Amino acid sequence: MTTQFKRGLAQATDLTRSGKLQEATALIKSLLQPANTGPIPAPAKDSEDQVIEGEFTRLDPSPSGMPDPRRTPLAETLRKIAAGGMPGHSARAGGADVLPQGAQFLALTHKGFQGSRSYRLYIPAQRPDGPMPLIIMLHGCTQSPEDFAVGTGMNAVAEEFGCLVAYPAQPSGANAQKCWNWYRPADQGRDRGEPALFAGLVHDILRDHTADPTRVYVAGLSAGGAAAVVAAAAYPEIFSAVGVHSGLPAGGAHDIPSAFAAMRSGSRARPHQTVVPTIVFHGLADTTVHPQNGVAVLEQALQAMSGLQETTQSGTAAGGRRFRAAVHGLADGRSLAEHWQIEGAGHAWAGGRPSGSYTDPAGPNASRQMMRFFLQHKKV
C-alpha cells in the first residue's frame, strides 16, 4: 500500500467519523481508480488533533509469515468505511465477551464542568459484601472502551477479585484519532481538561455504585498510559495507584513537536510532589514510544519515595516472552514501584487477548499483575 493511498484512506476514515459519508465515499472511489496518481490533499484539521502516537503493532502468537485469518480484505474494509463502519475493529472489538450471569457492562455518560464523556462500567457478578475497588482504564489511540476491555481481559480479572472497572471513551471530536491529549498543558493539571473529567467520572461512580473511595486506581495504554500518570499526579487523593503500559511521564511534553520528540527518544519530567504507587510495563522492541519513557515514569515516581529496597525478578511468560521486573518495596512486603521490561515486545498490551487490538498474547499478563499491585494500596 503506497503512502499516498494510506493518507487517502486515513482522510476517508476521518470524514466517515465526522458523518461526511458522501465525501468519504467519493474519496474512496477515487483511491480505487488505477488512473488516480495525483496528490491527495491533506485533511484539514486543527494541529492539536493530530495523532500523537505511532502505528500500533498487534502481535499474534501465529507463526511468522503466516496470514492472519482474522485480517479483513482491503476491499471489504473500504466498503465498511463507505457504509459508515470503523476499519479494523468491527469483527473483533465489539465487546464480544460473554458476561457471567449476574454481571453488567453498562453504557453511561459523565457530565461535568469540563464537558461530558461516555464510558462503560463493568460490575462483576461476584460482589463482595462491602464497597468494591474501582479501576479506571484509559484506552490508546483509535481504540474504544469495548475493544480495550476485550483486549486487556481486565473484566475477567475484575470478576475474579470483585472489582468495578470503568472505561472512558475519547471521542473523535476531542482528538481526531481518539487519543487522550496527554501532551497539552490544558490537559495536564488539576481542575481542568481531561484529568478533571476523570476525577468527575470517579465521583459519579462513587455516588451511584458500591465503590470504595479508598481503593480507586487508574491505568492506561500508550496515550492512555500517559494520561493515567497525569491524572494520578493531579489527584493523588483520589487515585491510590497507577498502571502505565507503553506510556510517558507526566509533563514529558507540552506540545506536538515535544510529544513526538519524547516518543522518539525518551523524556524526563519533574518528580511527583506526593507518593504515587506506580507499576510500569514497556516492551523493549517498542518503536512507537521509546522504552526510555518507561524508565522516566519509574524515576518520576521514585523521586517522591524513600526507604525502599530494590529486588529484581526475571522469567519467561507462558507465551514465550522473557521479562525482567525491578521491584521497589517496603519492609512490610508491599511494592511502591515496579518496572516490567519485556524482551522482543512492541507497542502492545502484554498478555492481552488476540481478539482485541494492539495486544501481545505472548507476554506476561499485565492486567493480572496490575490488579495484584493495585490491591496492595489503599488510602488511609
Tell me the quaternary state.
single chain
Instruction: List the secondary-structure elements in sequence, H or E.
Output: HHHEEEHHEHEHEHEHEEEEEH
Strand content: 15-25%
Summarize the amount of helix as a percent range.
25-40%
Structural class: alpha/beta
**Integer average pLDDT:** 83
Low-confidence stretches: 33-52, 54-95
How would the global form be characterised?
Answer: globular
Q: How are the strands of the biggest sheet laid out side by side?
A: 1-2-4-3-5-6-7-10-9-8
Amino-to-carboxy terminus distance: 55 Å
Characterize the main sheet: 10 strands, mixed
Per DSSP E runs of 2 or more residues, the count of β-strands stands at 12
Number of helices: 10
Give the C-alpha Rg: 20 Å
Which SSEs are present, and which pair or pack?
Layout: H1 3-17, H2 21-32, H3 74-82, E1 104-112, E2 115-123, E3 132-138, H4 145-152, H5 154-161, E4 164-168, H6 193-208, E5 211-221, H7 223-234, E6 241-245, H8 256-265, E7 278-283, H9 292-302, E8 309-316, E9 322-329, E10 335-342, E11 349-350, E12 359-360, H10 366-374
Parallel strand pairs: 3-4, 3-5, 5-6, 6-7, 7-10, 11-12
Antiparallel strand pairs: 1-2, 2-4, 8-9, 9-10
Helix pairs in contact: 1-2, 6-7
Sum up the structure in keywords.
380 residues; alpha/beta; two-stranded parallel ribbon; 12 strands; 29% helix
